[in-house]
Amino acid sequence: MRGRRYAAACLAAVLLPGLCSGCAGNTVYTQLRDVESLELVRTVGVDREEQVTVTVVTGLSAGGDAPITLQEQGATLAEAMHMLEQSASRRRPFYSHTEYLVLGQSAAEAGILGYLDYFGRMLEMRTDTGVYLVRDGDAAPVLHSVCGGKDGGDRILAFLKEDLPRTGQGYVATCLETAVSLERYGCALVMAIRLRPGEEPDAVQVRPAGFGVLENGRLTAFLSDAESRGVCVLQNRVREMALVTDDGQGGKISLQLGPVRTAIVPVFANGALVRLDAQIRSTANITEMASRRSAEDPAVRARIASQVEEQLTKWAQAAVDCAQRMGLDFLALGGAAARKAPVRFAAVQAAWPEVFPKLDVAVTAQVEVIRSYDMDAPLSGGPMRRNAETGEA
Amino acid sequence: MRLRRRGQDPQREGQAPDLVGPVSAAGIRAAFGESADYMERTLAAGGGTAEAVLCWLDGLVSGTAAAETLIRPLTDPARFAGVRSERAAIRRVLEGGVYAGTVRRRGALRDAVYDMLAGCCALVFPKTGAAVTFEMKSEERRAVTEPKEEKVVKGAKDAFAELIRTNTMLVRRRLADPALRLRETVVGSSSHTRVCVLYLQGFTNPELTETVCERLAAMQVRGLLSAAALESALSDRPRSPFPQLLHTERPDKFCQNLLEGRVGILADGLPMGFLAPGTFAQFFKMPEDRANHFLVASVLTLLRYAALLLSLLLPAFYTAVAMYHQEMLPTRLIQTMIEAKQSVPFPTAVEVMGMLAAFELLQEAGLRLPSPVGQTVSVIGALIVGQSAVEASVVSPVVVIVVALAGISGYTVPNQDMSGALRLCRLALVAAAVACGLFGIVIGTTLLLYHLCTLESCGVPYMTPFSGGKGAAAALLQMPPDREPEADPALRVRRKQP
I need a surface site. Which of A1, A180, B24, B394 has the fewest CB within 10 A? Predict the structure, then answer.
């Protein structure tokens, strides 16, 4: 009996590697590649004119060597990628550590569904790869000038990705998010960037340039800065944001907004969806007061709160108006409403593309003004205030 | 004194000594043949009333002590006054005519010969065909010294020695309990090694004791000269590389395990005690755990298990990731790995296997050489050769780190037998990783777990308590003294039905 068990175990040990290692020919053995034979690709750029141009850039090596840039063209993306593999003389490009996919405007206008599908089926590529769109330009110049630079472009794009939620100007969607949004809502937002000349000669900078709107996989429009900020506000993508308001007497007050949270509440009447309430909440921290007025003054606080609420409402309303004008729910308001009232929303789910453009969306904002560490009085350089009760400094 | 080294030597003629029949000086002489250490002397006991032959094995018996305690009183006529026959002389000897602690009357040649082999003198009375044996063991023995392998800071500093009585004494001193039972048996058709089974009557599971005794009785070996023979006989699966019998050179650890309900085994000539059953968790316990604060001991025990995983899986995991699953690593780490591997001429598989082999070589060299030289070899090997190999780009620094980390982690396993088994498994897992990457590791680990789960030690599942039942927490952690279970719950023996 024991012998049989061992025989079964040995047989399983021999068979399992073959059975468990994959299917349809993609066995583990086809993945055999020694680590030193790989060239880690960090950024992939895709352009389309007459042919598809693929540009890939490696990251900085551990030894600090400059990134390597490779570029090939082909009738299709697959052909260009295949030629790229063949042209790599030293080592084989390895895409599992690709951080960003940069799409040229021409490629996006032609349609990116095929590219997303190709990268989605590519075993090496990860679905959390961020997608950038180059506004008014191609991806190749960005990869050559920014990513292929000695500073390592993936780092610059990474800094941008980190900074965007802090400034409220946008966010970088992943390949998966973009594909899911296109599949589910027929539209998606992709963060656009733009190349600008830098301060030094031959230097270039990358700046955020609003969201690009993809409809059925094709780029149809770009959102303005206000609309992009509104998208971030409505999709809870703002972690913090700097704002400047005035005190009504010529002074300026700098604020740091905390996380902005928006609740989408569907309002039903007699079983019909009559309105969507977008309730925005946030806190505003006074960071600097170039004003003669005191932060303790309730009137000043009320004015600050009112201005911030007005600004947030304006941005959000601009984004809603744009979405309704285009007839595309790229704000995913339908999804938010469905999560809030799944049973009642099911009745309008099918007709949502027709309902959404005409729906009343009421945006309200509520902001609480606070001051760090409860230091209500600004530093004046004068004698310290004394505690009213104890008299201590 | 007349020393005889003559007579027929049956072994020289290809025959085993025949020990059948009544005891006689000639029979004893024939049994030992021309052994250089066989001595005999004819005495006129009691002033000539009875002639007797005193036989002994030089070295086992102290000649000086024999002269003082046996020959002198035997040849003293005053002590044998009134003795007229050999029977009377034998009676006088048995009643205290000579100074000896243990005196036995033997009629059979076999009994007399084996008494002599156990360190007795035999006084043979030719006319009556009887002998009296006196325990007269030589005091030549190694002193009780400090443990060499199981050193502790807070704990006893004595270790088992080669003589079984010394070892039972060390146990008795710690467990002054009349319930401590010692069942002795002789193992080995040639070595006649005394093996002692120790347990606490009324506390240790009697089935466990019987199992151990039965297996000892069933041992069919010519000589019990090494621990491996005993372990092989008492193990349920002797072909498994995993130790199924706990061994220790520390009497305090031995006694602690007896108190937990285990059965102890001591063998003459082996400076260590064995404990049955040996379960997997038991091999990761240290006697010092009880000397430390329970929180400290718990963290250290968990650390040992973490080190076990590291030692077992790290080289295999590195190999799998470097060869198949590069996407699993953080980008910065894989960039460092690629950079380090750039100028190394060997593929990862050869590199890792080679480094593991080199590590084993260094370890063996360090063990076999005398201590100061061994340390030098280790230092030269680890520092100079390792660094030179990295600088010469023969191996990548990452592989050196991985293998060294796995090796150092392996040293935290308190038991050397378990450590050796893990080293074997580590190599096998690396081979599996080379063949099939992470799939290979998963399959290898599954087979390893399967093997461990099918093992039993004296009827107790080897993976107890992890394989079920209570006590997993107690195995992984050190309980506070007031919450420690009296007996190890793992020792509820589940005997196999025939």
Answer: A1
